[in-house]
Amino acid sequence: KSQKGLASHSNSKYQNVDDRYRASGGKNPTKIGEVIAIQNANYKATDSLYEEKIATAIVMSWKQSSGHNKIITDPQMKFFGVSSQIEKSNPDLKTWNHFDICVVMVLVDNK
Q1: pTM of the shown model
Q2: Where residue 51 falls among pLDDT bands split at 50, 70, 90?
Q3: According to a count of CB atoms within 10 Å of the terminal CB, is the N or C end of the chain lower?
């Protein structure tokens, strides 16, 4: 679970990724994977590419993690869904924005 309680591979309502997958209408997969990224970042307030930079940082963090990379590059898996929460705050310096980022992606077998 994240420090702010944003993401976890298990939680109190839907105990695990299988429960969440079925609750969202998914049918009985033979294989299911979930990757979570929790990061924070600072970008200049004038940076118009901050969304692309956040997306790139998330994907790169998954690729650099052997467990996450194994799930997202498995040829038997296909994309099912993604959820993200990005909280923006402005620290004391008005020229910078701070972002707390949480992204969850679920993949299932493509059978």
Answers
A1: 0.77
A2: very high
A3: C
pLDDT tens digit string along 67-77? 999 999 999 99
Q: How many CB atoms lie within 10 A of CB 109?
A: 13
| Angle CA 82–38–15, to nearest 5 | 60
> What's the alpha-carbon Rg for the chain, to the nearest Å?
16
For the chain, give the secondary structure using H, E and C: CCCCCCCCCCCCCCCCHHHHHHHCCCCCCCCEEEEEEEEEEEEECCCCCHHHHHHHHHHHHHHHCHHHHHHHCCCCEEEEEEEEEEEEECCCCCCEEEEEEEEEEEEEECC
The average confidence (pLDDT) of the chain is 84
Q: Alpha-carbon dihedral of residues 32, 104, 70, 1, nearest 10 degrees?
A: -100
Separation between Cα atoms, residue 85 and residue 83, nearest integer Å: 7
Q: 71 with 107: CB under 8 angstroms?
A: yes
